[in-house]
Amino acid sequence: MNYLEEYYSNYDEEGRLLSQHGQVEYITTMTYIHRYLEERKAQREPGQLRILEVGAGTGRYSLALAGEGYTVDAVELTEHNLGILCSKITEKMQITAVQGNALDLSRYEENTFDLVLVLGPLYHLYTREEQLQALREAVRVARPGGYVFAAYCMNESVVLQYEFLGGHIKEDMTSGKLTADYHCLSQPEDLFVMMRKEEIEALTQQLPVERRALLATDGATRYMRELVDAMDQETFARWVEYHLLTCERQDLIGATNHSLDILRKK
Predict the structure, then answer these.
(1) How many domains is the chain partitioned into structurally?
(2) pLDDT (tens digit, 9 = 90+) per residue, 110-147?
(3) Domain range spanning residue 199?
């Protein structure tokens, strides 16, 4: 059974990012994308910037960036998501969308892209070998001085929200889905791989990159998502402002649901 294809064929990922609590992750990611694209613009001729999104989903980021005038290549594994993405491409967009796998970007030459977004694939790669392969491919196709954005699902948020608040702690400790030190052990049918900060850092150390930032893209938002969704516009703007001011605090990274590692290719 293709668990991933079945999941995304029935899950409204785009709707999640459009919800008020989902917008925090999107706003944070786009804020940092624009920050580092501006840096690359200062180093290159206008119109030369190229972006690759690996695991583009239904195109929330790729379409937005293409709509801003960037040249975008989008790679998506699942046919369902790719179909939605392609249906939204307009004639004015410089975007090429293809079906492909994060583990094999051989269709692209090395040193091609100024920004490589890997905002979903690492959620679903279950071994360190696969995770490193995906990251190495992303770094390979990035230009020297270009950036790789790698997103992860974090372990402690699941332990706190799903295991304890959700009442699954006893069964999952008994079944072996949690280690003695409360690390979630995932199989393909579980869909998502949970990481800890030290594991992300161990991956990064094996790549020819320097880290520019490791940040929480949603922070405490999903812990209080009903409250966030009910906020009026002014309060929500304050919440986003607070989040952006604190999202790089390393003492808070481990508790976020989603993290973003920003790497610069040497």
Answers:
(1) 1
(2) 999 999 999 999 999 999 999 999 999 999 999 999 99
(3) 3-153+193-265
